[in-house]
Amino acid sequence: xxxxxxxxxxxxxxxxxxxxxxxxxxxxxxxxxxxxxxxxxxxxxxxxxxxxxxxxxxxxxxxxxxxxxxxxxxxxxxxxxxxxxxxxxxxxxxxxxxxxxxxxxxxxxxxxxxxxxxxxxxxxxxxxxxxxxxxxxxxxxxxxxxxxxxxxxxxxxxxxxxxxxxxxxxxxxxxxxxxxxxxxxxxxxxxxxxxxxxxxxxxxxxxxxxxxxxxxxxxxxxxxxxxxxxxxxxxxxxxxxxxxxxxxxxxxxxxxxxxxxxxxxxxxxx
Amino acid sequence: xxxxxxxxxxxxxxxxxxxxxxxxxxxxxxxxxxxxxxxxxxxxxxxxxxxxxxxxxxxxxxxxxxxxxxxxxxxxxxxxxxxxxxxxxxxxxxxxxxxxxxxxxxxxxxxxxxxxxxxxxxxxxxxxxxxxxxxxxxxxxxxxxxxxxxxxxxxxxxxxxxxxxxxxxxxxxxxxxxxxxxxxxxxxxxxxxxxxxxxxxxxxxxxxxxxxxxxxxxxxxxxxxxxxxxxxxxxxxxxxxxxxxxxxxxxxxxxxxxxxxxxxxxxxxxxxxxxxxxxxxxxxxxxxxxxxxxxxxxxxxxxx
Lengths: 270, 304
Description:
A: alpha+beta, 4-stranded antiparallel beta sheet, 7 helices, 30% helix, B: 304 residues, mainly alpha, globular
């Protein structure tokens, strides 16, 4: 077991630089001094979401430029559908069905961007697109848009729907009263970013990316992996359900029958 | 609060226990299976539809098994008929799970589930209210007793006839297979046991005596629900064990308490009240599919 862990650790260490280079655009030095408070967030049976804290220092000695922090979940395929009427009489009545599906080959499953003022004042539109500082910029269309559909409307809908689920967040101000998330700048170039990770955010490997922009151009950046993993009973149940699903099903049924039997015995009428 | 490992959401333990206990209470009080109330209740609590449907089946297996224990002691289970219905049901639920998976991929599952519930709740609710109203007016609906039931139906004329000693029948095996199949499909898609469809079908189509109907239908419901839990676990991985345990705990206890209290009350009035509630709930489903949505776009295609 120990040997296995050592091997695993080696693989992780060996692959770490490779994942760091997967970040879009690789012409900028990865030297922004930054870290996260917790590199491994655990999900147990009492999990109700979490906070992720990223801190670092602006390397510019005179404190010029703007810090942008992005927390990204893994990219996954997504589908957006538009409701349309079916079985209707003319345009007056009918049931609404989900139609006109548009697929995205990848879209971030979680995306939070933090800055101390609106992003468009910090980075050029080209940089926002290139470094994917906006969830819409990271979503890649994979299928044709149905007739009468607008590609940007689908993209906007994806962002809006995920934002309503708290999966896409953006902060342009330091934490306020009652809102814990945001980017705070301290004296000496020190900064701290706090993101609320809701309970419905996928359990996966995340990345915290920090960027330094000056005059609309990217100067420096850093990428830090954050693992969100299940532990304890949550992990056992989930692994069983995914890997040995037939056994999981049988166990559930047996528990159900046991519960039924127990109730019949306990409540048996004399 | 407890975090559900498959639904991937935190829920309040007490709330789930209260809801499942309440549903169990109502089902014990009125004498219906709880599946067709439990699944919509879970949907209202924000549990994703696939998880609600697949997990609800485990609670149905628990309550129906508890019922069979009682019925076996009274010798009111026609095992041969139950087995035949189950064979049809096995094929039906296997097709149902496949259909469920396909609808999930197409992103139409929520819609189909809503429409089926709309039809089901409104019709069952209407029938219950009507029955209760007739009773209140002093004209109970024509009851089907062993003496009054007509001797022949289509089941008596089709080929492949078989003898069912406990029900005192000599009928074709085809109608039970078809009925079992239909119930299996509905169970898999809607997360219901189907007892309230199965029982009238057994009485009116198969002409089974009323005393064996409940035990036999519970047998078929238990087989189908158990199979659905296993099939859904394998096909869609949407059975949430933690949620299932909470539902079972609340459901069986609620049902027993409901049955005790219900024994001393007029079942017809209770059914009338439940029927009215069901019609009201179906209005919510109607509202959802007919009213123009504020949000034109929906996320879909994934698991939920």
